[in-house]
From TrEMBL:
InterPro entries (alphabetical): CHP02001 (IPR010239)
Organism: Shewanella baltica (strain OS155 / ATCC BAA-1091)
Alphabetical keyword list: Signal
Official protein name in the record: TIGR02001 family outer membrane protein
Keyword Flavoprotein: no
Signal sequence coordinates: 1-29
Keyword Signal: yes
Length: 240
C-alpha cells in the first residue's frame, strides 16, 4: 500500500510540474538535443547492452522559469537464458534548477525509466544535485527499482578539470545501496568509479574513460547481460 500511494503521488507530481512548465513561459523555451554512440552502455557500473555498443539520443526543453522537460532513449540487451528482455529503454524527466550564487547551482529531477516489451520493470526515480566549480554531487532515490517495490539509493561525486584548453579530466565515484540489491543480487552495496578525458572536435564531443567497480567473486560478471567487469568506454556525441 505504501509503495502504490507513493507511485500515485509521483505521477501527480509529474503532471503538476509539466503543467507549471508549459504555462510558465512556453514562448521562451530553448530546445537542445544530442545523439551519441558508445561501445558499451554502462549504468552505475553495470552494462545495459551485454557489453555491446549503444546508440543513444535525447532532447530537452528548457524554460526561463528554471523548469525543463526532456526525453532520452538507448538500445539495451537484458537477455538471459529463459528470459527475453527489452530491446529499448526510453526515459522522460521533468526538472527544476537555479543558482544559489555565481558559483553554486542546484537541480531537482523526477525521472521515469521505461522499457519496451511486456516486462513491467519501469520505475520512477528522484534526483537532487548541486554543482560547484567543476564538482557535482547528486543523490538518487527510488522506492520501486525495476518495478520490484524495493528501494535503491545512489550517491555520486564527479569532478571535471580542464587541464589544457578544450581537454578535461573527468573523475567519478558512485555508491549503490538498497533493498533492491540485497534482495535480487545478494549483496547490500557496491561502488563504481571512472577516470577519463574528454574534448570537443569540429562540433563533436569525444570521451575516453576507464570504468570499474569494487564487485568481486560471483558479482564480477565478465560477459553477457549485466556485465560488471572493468572496461574502457569510448563515445562520440553531437549536440544540436
Amino acid at each position: 500500500m505504501y509503495n502504490n500511494l507513493n507511485k500515485k503521488r509521483l505521477v501527480k507530481l509529474v503532471g503538476l510540474a509539466l503543467t507549471t512548465t508549459l504555462f510558465s513561459g512556453m514562448a521562451a523555451a530553448e530546445v537542445t538535443g544530442e545523439i551519441s554512440l558508445t561501445n558499451d552502455y554502462r549504468f552505475r557500473g553495470v552494462s545495459q547492452t551485454a557489453g555491446d555498443p549503444a546508440l543513444q539520443g535525447g532532447i530537452d526543453w528548457s524554460f526561463d522559469s528554471g523548469f525543463s522537460v526532456g526525453a532520452w532513449a538507448s538500445n539495451v540487451d537484458f537477455d538471459e537464458p529463459g528470459y527475453n528482455g527489452p530491446a529499448i529503454e526510453y526515459d522522460f524527466y521533468v526538472a527544476y534548477g537555479g543558482e544559489i550564487n555565481e558559483d553554486l547551482t542546484y537541480d531537482i529531477t523526477l525521472n521515469r525509466y521505461n522499457y519496451s516489451g511486456e516486462s513491467d520493470i519501469g520505475y520512477f526515480e528522484v534526483t537532487a544535485g548541486m554543482d560547484y566549480k567543476g564538482f557535482r554531487a547528486a543523490y538518487w532515490y527510488t522506492n520501486d527499482y525495476g518495478g520490484s517495490d524495493l528501494d535503491y539509493h545512489y550517491a555520486e561525486l564527479n569532478y571535471s578539470y580542464e587541464f589544457v584548453e578544450n581537454w578535461s579530466l573527468d573523475l567519478h565515484y558512485g555508491y549503490n545501496v538498497g533493498d533492491a540489491l540485497d534482495d535480487a543480487e545478494g549483496f547490500d552495496s557496491y561502488s563504481d568509479y571512472s577516470v577519463g578525458v574528454s574534448t570537443e572536435l569540429s562540433g563533436f564531443g569525444l570521451s575516453l574513460a576507464w570504468l570499474g567497480t569494487d564487485l568481486s567473486g560471483d558479482q564480477k560478471v565478465s560477459d553477457g547481460a549485466f556485465k560488471t567487469s572493468d572496461t574502457v568506454l569510448a563515445s562520440v556525441s553531437y549536440a544540436f
